[in-house]
Each structure stands twice: as C-alpha cells, then as structure tokens.
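seq:
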Amino acid sequence: MGLPAIAQLPGASLPGQTTNMNRSLTLLVSVREVSGIPLDRQAIVRLSTRLGGQNTMAVTQDGATATFSDIKGGDYEIDVEAVGYKAAHERANVVGVSAYTVYVYLTPEGAPEAVSPVDSRPLLTPKLQREIDRSLAAIKEKKYAEAREHLAKAGKLAPSNYDVEYLTGMVDFLEQNLEAASTHFQKVLSLAPTHERTLMAFSQLRMQTHQPDQAATMLENAVLNNSKNSQARLLLAVCYFNLQRFSKARTEALTAGEIDKSKAAAGRMIAAKTYLMEKDFGHAKEALTAFVKDFPAEKSAAEAKNLLEKLKKIEAATTADKEIPPAVTPPSVVVERVWAPPDTDEKTPAVAPGVTCSADELVAQARNHAQLTLADFERFGATERINHQEIDSNGSAGPAKTREFTYVILVQRPRPDRYYIDERRNGGEATYSFPTALATRGLVSIGINIFHPDFSGDFNYSCEGLGRWAGHPAWQVRFEQKNGVPSHIRSWAYDGKIFPIALKGRVWISSNTFDVMHLETDLREPVKELQLTREHLAIDYGPVTFKQHKEELWLPQTAEMYFSFLGRRYHHTHTLSDYFLFDVDTHSKTSAPATPTPSQDQQ
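struct:
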C-alpha cells in the first residue's frame, strides 16, 4: 500500500518580529472563571520576568482586571490567587501594542484538575488500554465470556471509566441480557449524560423492547448535543415512524441523508413511506419514482418498484379503495457504531462571552512566535511510539500493533530569511518499518505550516473567541482550505501518485504566548480516488525545555489519526517523548513521563 503523508515543505521566509521590545506598554491581566466570565471577586496578581529582575503585584479592579503600567515587552510569569479558587500560573509573551491583555482562568477549590475542554475522554493507562483492546477483540469474535473477564479487570483499574461501563453494557446487549445492559447504560449516562455511543445503543434497546417513545427521547438528546449525527437522526426517523409522527420522521430521514450521502438512500425510502402512511399518494409516487432512478443498485429499489406497482392499482381502483394505503413494511436501519471523534464542524466549543479577536492578527502573531522560538534550533529529536489498530464495520478496534522510532526534526535555513521543517525517522519512510503499510509524517510541521506565510493564503480563517485548552486560555481559530486552491501542507501518496488533501479544522493558540496548544483537522470533502471518506487528526502540544536554551518550545506530545481508506477503517496513535538536542545537548530530556517499553502482548 502507499504512504499517506503530510507533504514535506519547500523553504519559506517568515517576517521577523517588528515590534519594539523596549517600548513602554500597559499590561492588563483579565482574571476569569473557567466558563470565561470575569471573576466576581478580587484576585491578587503577581508579575515577574522569567529571568528575574522585575517583581510586582496588583489587585484586580472593575472587570476583574489587574493593570501593570510602564512595562517592557518580553516574557513574563504571572501568578494569580483568589479566595475559593486554586492558584493559577501562566506565561506571557508581551509584544506589540500599547495595551496588551493576558487572560488567566481560575478553577474553584475542590474541582478536579483541568483537562481538555473538548476531548473529555477518561485517561487510559497502558494496562487499562490493553484490557480494553483485548475485550474489543473478544467481542469482535463473539467470545463474550472472555470479553467480560477483560472488562472486569479494566473495571478494577478504572471503576468510573464510562467506556468500560459502556462496553460491559454492550456485551449484555449482544447476549440479550437486556435488563443488565440497561443498568450499565444508565450508569454511563449518569457519569456522562451526552455519551453518544450509549445514547445510540440504549435507544436501540428501547426500540427492541417496544418503547419507541423512550428511544426517541434518547435520540433527541443525541441530536441536540450533536446536530450532525446522521446515524442518530436516521434512528430517530424510525422511532418517529413507529410513533406515527410521519412529518417528523420525514424531516429527520432527509436531514440524515443531507449530512451523510451514504445515508441518502435509507433516508429517502423512509420519507417515501411516510407519504404512503399519510395517504399522500401523489408525493409518494414522486418520491418512489425518484428513488428507483437515483438508487437502482440499492436492495430497497425492488421494494420501491413493488410499492409503485401497488400505487398504480390504487389509481385504477374505486374511490373507496383509493383511500387504503398499500401495505408498508416499517423502516429499519443498520446501526453503525461510533468509531471516530466527531467532525470539527459538528459542534463549536464554548468561548468566553464578550471577548472578540482578529483572525488576521492571531495568524501573524503565531507565525512570528514560531520563527522566534525556532531561531536557535537546528536539529532535535524524540522517541516516537506508534500504535496502529484496524477498526471493523461494527466500530470495534482490533489488536494494537506497536513500534518505536527515533523521530528527528531538522530546521532547514537555505538563507537567513528562509526556513522549513524536515521530519524523519530512523529506518526512513519505508512502509515495512511501520506497524502496517500505512505511514504518517509531519506531526511537528503542520502546527507551524498552518500559519506559514507561504501557505496561510491557502486558507480562510475565523477566530471563534477566547476558549481554553487543558485549563489555559486559548484563542479558538477555525480554518478551511479555499476552494480552487491546491493543498500544499497535506497529501497522500498511493500507488505512485500524490493526492493533495483539502483540509478544514480548528486550532487552539495560547492567548498569552501564541504557542499552538491543540490542533484538529478533517477532510474538507472526501477523496473519491482513495475512497478516503474520513480523516480526523488531533494533536496535543506541550512545553519542552532544553538545557542551554532559554526558549521553551511547544511540541507534539500525542497525536491521534482516524481514517477510512479504501473501504477500511484505521486508528493511529503517535506518542512523542524524551525530546533531545543533537550535537549540542544530547542528554537534555523533557519532563514528559517516559513511555513504557511495549510488552509482548502489545506487539
């Protein structure tokens, strides 16, 4: 098979930092609750320079803002305390305008430690992941007793892990232990009320036990939480049909097909049947005729033709007989399990009220910050661990295949005002070196190249507001490849050909330092030649400090990629740890926890 890859980049220049660092500035520190609203009480804010020298304090006033006048541009450390809240620490890179605002979020005392505001999945330790993987493999092979054993072990490792609870419920559901399955599903929803897989599975159980009204309520919640969940909408259409709410059934069925073209046939058949049940024979005939024309290869095309024949007989019948609709088989839907995170456009994460931002200014700031922080680096590396799983048609992940590499990042500068990032692995890019014949590269460069001056013109950007990532304030920026502009930062290589991939996505940029904290990308549209119908990439970044360098780099820590390629589904996980410098300081390590050596059963 070919090599899916983030394209290696030509050299490109970045403008230097044009702001005068010696200019006097006013620094405003806005202290806010985790929801983004200004703190309703006074807070003490301490400001100090990272290299020592300046150390001053201020108290927040109206608008929960502390003011520091007549300071110089540069790097600062900010510590904030308030009664009833945990102390917070932020770094800030103060540049540019005469008044510069830094945002700090405070978490109430007693609240759990902050996690990602978007990806709220429970943390999986390697041992817990291993037990879950084994249970999934057993479920796939219908070895339910074996699956229970692994899930029981997983439950002891993580008693409140709702994924373990969900999978235990699924084993009961598959074995038709419906009462036990209901208990597990109810527990999941008590821990995570919007857990989509549980809402979908529980609704199917309710439909099976002839409770379409309760199933509809669950599916309505799933759609309310994720308006682009086409599978939930299709199931909801079936519920409404069984409840004889035909107009609503038709709306949901057609909407599901608009969101996901693969569900268009099922949605339109349900819609045609709703017309029949409403005795609207004119619209029914029109819908069925169009169905046969547009979906001749569908299995349900034969049913549509049969219904059309019955409609012809009704048209020729007496007036009384015309009032009797033909016998209609209630619609059914093949249920797909959720196997990948939602598309970035399915739900926009919440942002702080009343805070505006300029996408153009943020792109420029992120670009300049990347150039400044990379200026002193030429070559560094990390230990990379790749986990590969294939996902079956039911959404269950197969056994994990794992390999480790030395990942090398080169900062190339063909001339002083021009640079690019080159990324390599020991063993090269040969696909036989990877857990499977599918390889990815470019994890470091993509977060830089999204804002690179040679490529930023390829995208439309919009700043959605001040959000947060892992408890820290972050500007939330959506981007999308412009129509008619070829992709320069992502491509797939397959069968000797290169396929540029048009992207869309969202990036979280530290509001105080302009470091990239998190990045997610999706396909702007499917790639028919590759049967690439889905590709979701999510990268978490973290701070890396090397000895003998004052600059702190934010570099990828973990990356996950889900994709559907040539009719098969895959999940790749990349973990980068133990960053080090070549030549200068080969023993400098990051503070990231060491990744354990994969055991024999992880290979």
